[in-house]
Amino acid sequence: MTTTAHTDTAALALGDDALVLSHRLGEWMGHAPVLEEEVALANIALDLLGQARILLSMAGDEDDLAYLREERAFRNLQLVEQPNGDFAHTIARQLYFSTYQHLLYDRLATGGGPFAGLAAKAVKEVAYHRDHAEQWTLRLGDGTDLSHERMRRACEALWRFTGEMFQPLEGVGTDLTGLETPWLESVGAVLGRAGLETPEGPRTGAWRAGAGRQGLHTEPFGRMLAEMQHLHRSHPGASW
Amino acid sequence: MTNTDWPLWEVFVRSRRGLSHTHAGSLHAPDAEFALRNARDLYTRRGEGVSIWVVPSAAITASSPDEKDPFFDPSADKPYRHPTFYEIPEGVKHL
Amino acid sequence: MATAAAHRTARTPGYGGREATAGEQDAYQRAFDAAVAADERIEPRDWMPEAYRATLVRQIAQHAHSEIIGMQPEANWITRAPSLRRKAILMAKVQDEAGHGLYLYSAAETLGTGREELLDKLHTGRQKYSSIFNYPTLTWADVGAIGWLVDGAAITNQVPLCRCSYGPYARAMVRVCKEESFHQRQGYELLLALSRGTPEQHAMAQDAVDRWWWPSLMMFGPPDDESAHSAQSMAWKIKRHSNDELRQRFVDICVPQAQSLGLTLPDPDLKWNEERGHHDFGPIDWTEFKEVLKGNGPCNEQRITQRTRAHEAGAWVREAAAAHAAKHSGDSHENRESRETGAKQA
Fold first, then answer.
1. Domains of chain A: which residue ranges?
2. For A98-115, what is the mean pLDDT?
3. Which of residues 11-70 of B touch C (CB under 8 A)?
4. Which residues pair with B55 in a beta bridge?
5. Which residues pair with B52 in a beta bridge?
6. Nearest-CA residue of chain B relative to C330?
7. Cα C35 from Cα C29, distance rounded (Å)
8. Rounded alpha-carbon distances, angstroms, from residue C31 to B27, B63, C23
9. Which of C66, C80, C166, C253 could form a Cys-Cys staple with C129, CB 3.0–4.6 A?
10. DSSP label of B94
11. Which residues of B touch A45 (CB under 8 A)?
12. Which tens digits make up the pLDDT trace of C167-195?
């Protein structure tokens, strides 16, 4: 592959992460646990959607890519496509992903590669997402017995999707495996302050074929895409 | 407050450097950290601020209507505090 | 908005805690009447007639509830928005509605009624929200029709409220109106794209306008001669124009806008009346209005069920945060430290 093709591969992967997580957060609207949180979750969703649009546009037409690809062509992490679950699941997903994204964009911003411009702007947004997830992790982990138990369960349930984040990714211009140690330290520290143990289970699935970066997704993702793409696909060639 | 009813906070926003913080409104939050964050999301999502203060509403002491006269009337009869009290001949500058 | 802290003593201005005498009450009433007559604002700690307070709480709460319930019909399309640009716009708009609800609940709290109490009244049907949100959003074009017609009607209602006699409400409305200016325009632009698009898209737009036009006209409330609260609210300068006046203004604004859209308004009686200098329009079906208001609209039950479910499902989260705050209330060092990393500080 050429350098450009490699960049496209990475742009798609990072763009799909942002697109899919933004969509999941958008599903919260009208359902959040408190009105202030409606506003907060929407802010994060909007930041991510903005990132997705820039990244997808690097690889092609943003709408063609978002609406006309089949499930197997999406390159997002399985983590971000996981259904919202209860609020604890959403927060655990946010904690895992935003910690990763913050480490990654911080590197990309200073790396001078094709993503430096986007990353420099996005890293500030992502720092806020990470802070939001951290604040909630502390409150749920160290709140009531019920919230502690729900947060613990959520952290465990999503743990198996976290290994995929550190797979090498062509064209991204930085060594993702190098992010793993700081990620484990950072997440471990937050969980520790929240009175939660770092889960111990495996961090990847046993399926050798791979995961989201290889276009292999979990079952709920197909239904998410069906909903997201239906209207656009019902009117081929129309503009909106 | 019930156990799910978060306390009320008053939000003050500095819209840009050089201006003082002004009262923007109020919101509910469980603690100061979240009050700040909620304030940022709610009152500055169109870039309206560069700095935020949050204060528990319960911590504010306000003058009450019956105190209004003694509080604010005395200053009204001291016009010599205001520059317009003084007559300066026309043409005198920088005063 | 005035500090909500002020409401704590607002009810009883009393001298040193004792009850005000009849003479003092009269003096208060005269001061209040004079302030309203002089177009001054009433502020939370001012004395105000109990009926004025009750009217404001009812109206502001209903307004806040409308913003919150109004998120639902539009959020219904966030996950299906047909382009990423439209998706971003729609999310930002629904987010604004949550924000506007929050501004308005704060304004209501300055009158001494907490948000929890108001939400409880909404959930149990003791307070209303705008009936318009009991209609379903069946197609994507409905998002456009809501922006153009429903937000348009709301803005027509709200702009005069920026001069409402109650300060915190007026100030909340200034903020709301400023932020809402994009809501109506995005709806109009959305419909324009559909109207000029494929025949299927055009038909979708026309169908949405056909369904939303009459309910939008009902948003201004019953005709003046049947409006229960109007006269007193006008006297108190909570309200500045009558229902029929605002409805007429809205119709006059919409007719040329519909022409530019290339869509028709579903009213065969709609025509310009040279003599009045306004458009005449056909009779409104007030039976439907009353039925929907009573709870028989297509979505009344669904809206309240979703709202109540979200509130109940979120209780454990709110409890957890409150419990955490109680545990750490003395923990000022940690608070200060983590604040540094958070929102921008002075």
1. 5-234
2. 95
3. 14, 21, 23-28, 30-34, 36-37, 39-40, 42, 45-46, 49-53, 57-60, 62-66
4. B10
5. B13
6. B31
7. 10
8. 31, 18, 12
9. C66
10. -
11. none
12. 999 999 999 998 888 899 999 999 999 99
Question: Is residue C25 very low, low, confident or very high in pLDDT (cuts 50, 70, 90)?
Answer: confident
pLDDT, averaged across chain A: 95
**What distance in Å separates the CA atoms of residue B26 and residue A51, rounded to the nearest whole number?**
31
ipTM of the complex: 0.96
Return the structure tokens found at A143: 């709140």
What is the band of B65 on the pLDDT scale with cuts at 50, 70, 90? Answer: low
Residues from chain C contacting residue A239 (CB–CB below 8 Å) = 193, 197
Give dist(CA C16, CA C318) in Å, integer.
38
pLDDT at C6: 46
Taking CB atoms and an 8 Å cut-off, how many pairs form between chains A and B? 24
Q: If pLDDT is split at 50, 70 and 90, which confidence band does C285 have?
A: very high
CATH code of domain A5-234: 1.20.1260.10
* Least CB–CB distance from A146: residue in C190, C316, C341: C316
What is the 8-class DSSP label of residue C149? I
Contacting B with CB below 8 Å, chain A residues are: 34, 36, 39-40, 43, 131-132, 135, 139
- Residue C239: predicted pLDDT: 85
Distance in angstroms (rounded) separating the CA atoms of residues C152 and A151: 43
DSSP state of C296: I
Express each pLDDT in C307-328 by its tens digit: 999 999 999 999 999 999 999 9
Residues of C70-81 as b/e, b for ≥16 C-beta within 10 angstroms?
A: bbbbbbbbbbbb
- Chain C 141-160, residues with CB within 8 Å of chain A CB atoms: none
* Residue with the two structure tokens 């109004």: C70
pLDDT at C3: 53
Which residue in this structure is represented by tokens 């506003």?
A39
Structural tokens at position A222: 């197909």
